[in-house]
## 1
Amino acid sequence: MDKMTLALAAIVVLGGCGKRDAGNGKGPFDLVLRNGWIVDGSGNPRYRGDVAIRGDRIAAVGFLNGAAARETLDVRGLVVAPGFIDMMGQSEIYALIDSRLFSKITQGVTTEVTGEGGSVAPLTDRLVVDDSDAMKKWHYREDWRDLDGYFAQLGKQGSALNIATFVGATQVRLAVVGKENRQPTALELAHMSAIVDTLMEQGALGVWTALEYAPASYSRTEEIITLAKAARRHGGIYASHMRNEGIRIDDALDEVFRIAREADIPAEISHLKLAGRASWGRMPRVLARIDSARAAGLDITAGLVFRELVTRLAGEGKIILCSSHELSLVENVCSEVVILHRGRVVARGSIEELRHLRNQSSLEAVFSDLVASDNIENVAREMLELVMDA
């Protein structure tokens, strides 16, 4: 196995780090971030430079020596990157409760995609009544019934987070059929399809199912195909938390493939994983089935959760980002570790070296010991240049 480097808890929030200098009065830029490692999202290697901001736009990137700005921020040793996109969040209501969304912004997340199963629309009077307790507790109002209405309210209140949404198939079923375990009538299914048409015209990205949970689990494949066809008419995609992620995952994959084929729509498998001891070791076969479907002409993609990603990349020498609570998961597949805490490198070496150095039996204990250490800043300074040059 090639050596693999593992970075832990590596999210850097520039607003809370670095050193602020006095501004230079009214200049062409509102803010200049100087001396950072720039990762621009293009896929190119990182490079050192400055980033200038004017209003809510990036105005210049490069070596901006002498550029005047109202404020400058020295971010030497830190990474400057575009805001991160959370591809499966659930903050659409929280954005109305507290528009600052600190839990997202302080992790560098500036855009969230939502709508897995449930979504902010469609809403009916009956569904709003069901949410009345939550509205009283958290002090918000569901005054909309479609996406135009929701985004109008979000725009009026303001939000630190950009939000994009799918049409949740569960939400559509609740609006038309309710919570009953039955199939929609022909008229109801036509109504459901028309709802998807309308919400797609209002900016939805596609249809997203969560078929493992009631009442979505009551839906037959034919119902989902109808909704997926409506999304396809507007250039949308189909995403799915599949009906089974355990011993019946082959049946669930067959359903995704059928929907993609009959609706002629790109399909994304959400957080692909295998649940239960009986399914351990089957991921290579699952991935092979997805590869086969793609080779046959279907546009199938999947998002891997961390456990499966580690298993797949462990032998490829790839860098993996994870948080401290996942240390035990990677301990047996990594030969070299880089530990970061609050954006600073605090240790690097082989697992055995780190265990011996800190006199601990596990990586989790090493991490806890380092974070609690009084000399963590000294450790970070000693390790930083070594890692930057690696």
## 2
Amino acid sequence: MNEEKQTQEEVATHQVEGAAETEPSEAPTTTEPAAVSAIAESAEAQATPEPTEVSATVEPSEAPTTPEPTEVSATVEPSEVPATAEPAAVSATAEPSEAPATAEPSVEEPAVAEAESAPTARPELPPPPVLSGLIGRKLGMTHLFDGEGRMVPVTVLQVGPCYVVQVRTPERDGYHAAQIGFERIARRKLTKPLAGIFKKAGLGQPLRYLKEFRVLSGQAVPGQEIRPEHVFASGEVVRVTGVSKGKGFAGVVKRYGFAGGPKTHGSMTHRRPLSSGATGPQRVFKNKTMPGRMGGERVTVRGLTIVRIEPEHHLILVKGAIPGGRGSIVYVQKQLNSTQ
């Protein structure tokens, strides 16, 4: 019990001492606010210039900040320079290996382009030769007027361009001629032998119609292009060969111009051929004029005059009519003498 009292007394004394100690500390705390306010005022007074100083310091800080990025960029640039220089060195080291790789395609590409363009261009070919004829197509008929005002009926022919496919030589074939082709055709429609012929001639596009003509002058080389102005001239006399129009089965009156029998007075024979020959041989001779299929035959018309040549359209205007319908194939040849 005594110990408890002593401890309580000690606690009480400690509380009294703590209160005594707090009172003087509170007194200065009351005085300290004035000092604190004075300090605060002085701090505020100093704080007002300090922001200016801070702003001033900020401005220089901003001022260096503006150059600092430049310096940083400057510092970065050197850092980038070596960085770029190092890849440049790497690229320089890589470029030698790449340079031949890039140089090789650059060397091969023109070679491939030249190889592709060589068969089509053929710049080394000699001038086109003069042949005895060309292949063409009949377009139709029209008429012109000459200098004296007379109407001239003409047939329009599209002749060429033709290309030399093969050349016949006297040493190998016994005569000098050139096989030419006309009008392009799809490659899938060719037989293998024809495809080989066109490949050997160096023609990129195969041709549909082929025919040989004599070489009158010049040198014929496979791949040459021959146009009508290379062979013909205005006022020249030519002969044209074509296939006549088919008329079907016809009688002797239409086919051969028979007069026929009487039309009246009870005659029962009007368009019949009647006798087919003598009774002695007991047979019908060959080439007897009888009804049959008319037209569709190979016909040559001679003595035709070339009125005009239009090189830009590959056209020849020939005076008179020629066999065949519109769009039919014709062969225009020089008429070197009266017997041709």
## 3
Amino acid sequence: MKVLRLKYAIPLLLVPVALLRVEAQPPRNGGSASADIGSDQPIRVDVDIVNLYTAVRNKQNGLVNNLEKTDFTLAEDGKAQTIKYFTRETDLPLTIGLLVDVSNSQRNLIEVERHAAASFFQSVLKKKDVAFLVSFGADSDLLQDLTGSPRVLEDGLSRMKLNGGFSGINSGPVPTATHARGTVLYDAVFAASNDVLAREVGRKAIILITDGEDEGSTETEKAAIEAAQKADTIIYGILYVDRQFYGGFGNFGGGYSGETVLKHMADETGGRLFTVDRKNTLDNIFDQIQQEMRTQYAIGYTPTNSVKDGSYRKIDLRTNNKDQKVQVRKGYYAMPNQQ
């Protein structure tokens, strides 16, 4: 059993009770709906359905939002599957985890991140949506648990501060004797997925603001991605690099690999990688993510392979138009139902 790696940095009186949101929820893996996902009726979970949330883009990278079920073809491990539920989703509740890098390499960016995130929460959270906030550097800190209040999330953002340096053997909730800890990116994604999002239903996303460099995590990149996949969570990576910290422009030095890591995380979970630069500000990127999350297609199917042995199943979803790109997770884990 994995140990929770998020430190609770929330004042006791400010911890909200997690909201119960059962109406209009899509079925999570291990459940299916007795009504069409596109109906206005609450969905009742009874048997096995795999749920996919996907965005489709054209050659100009614009969102395509007028497709029908017949425009898609679906396969699992190379075998054709029948799409059972289909709708264009704009109003299904969202659960969002915002994970912000506050390590030494982000020292000069934290204030920009704080203000942009506050604006994002104000604009993106609708009725029944909830979000939580995690900062990570030498440790992962849960600054705000699940809440639907932008004001409460803004209070959490006000507690976000630099967490650089290296924690020693007695620092943090999980002692680490052999790893110097500077940016525990993988640990933060793993804990957010495994300890928060895995308990939620419906549409789930992690928005990860970082330069992508991990230093000292006890979890691996593979384990972090696997945790997100098992929690049915999409990762949107925002590459935000203080180029001066890495010695100027170019490749930031020979050892920098953050962009590759973030792109891999996003691709495997059905998200996207964004890069903050002069033409694409953090505010603009938040707007793009919000637009994408509100124009997704929700697709559900019953796998022809009904065995739940914990194995990984590859998903191939595409449209009939070869010029369109389908953005969806690469696969899922066929986990046994929890009793």
## 4
Amino acid sequence: MRIPSLSRFVVSGPAWISAGCVLTFALASGALRSMSSAEEAAGTREIDGEETPAVEADETTVAARAFAPSITLRSDDPGFVRLGEDDFVNVNCEPDTWTWKDGVAHSTGKPIGVLRTKDVVRNFELLVEWRHLTSGGNSGVFVWASPESIAMLERGEGRLPHGIEVQVLDHGYTAQYESQTGKKADWFTTHGDVFPTGPARMKPFPPVSPNGERSFPSKERSKPTPEWNQYYIRAINGEVRLWVNGEEVSGGTECKPATGYLCLESEGAPVEFRNIFLRVLP
């Protein structure tokens, strides 16, 4: 299901917001339609036949002017479930690699490995906030990690699953890579690359990496350590789309596999995840 860019669309119906964060995406359950020129000029939108102010300012709503001037987000969107410690399984990390406190998952980054969800998912929306605690930190969120690759990791074979990775990379990684290798960091970015791992396959949305495998972000939206970033990942019928801090930036289609586990990655440096919400779709 291809859904166009949301830069001129509005949402009717509830959506989701995390305290302290400006979220600027439209959710699949909302009624999505194009905004008319008259509405843009007037700063209003029509919902169920009634003209409504495009921006409703209260403690649970926020307008995303830079992204879509008339998107109003609410905290009570139905279907989202908060995920916590009991919803994840340690696949191949040490017992003390991951700890949870006050709803925040902290990873030491060592050894390299993942947590996985207890259940396999197919179509879904995922909301997650993350931050690195050191410059140059590396991590990721795996989408549709195959059960076969998870079983291999559980047997001690390999370190990371096969699926679609949504990279979580701090800006300092670029300088570290170039200093350590003497090569230009032109095959990755630090703003939300999406790419397949192992035998998984994906047709990336442009712009793409030099080897044609990664979807590079169309905008530079992520913030450096120790600031929090927010990812909204929508995965439907083999297509993955990523919003970084409110704006859609990258993704791909024709993903194989298109079902599997969701994973949080430990990869060498301390990282934290919080406000993890999942909505399973038909």
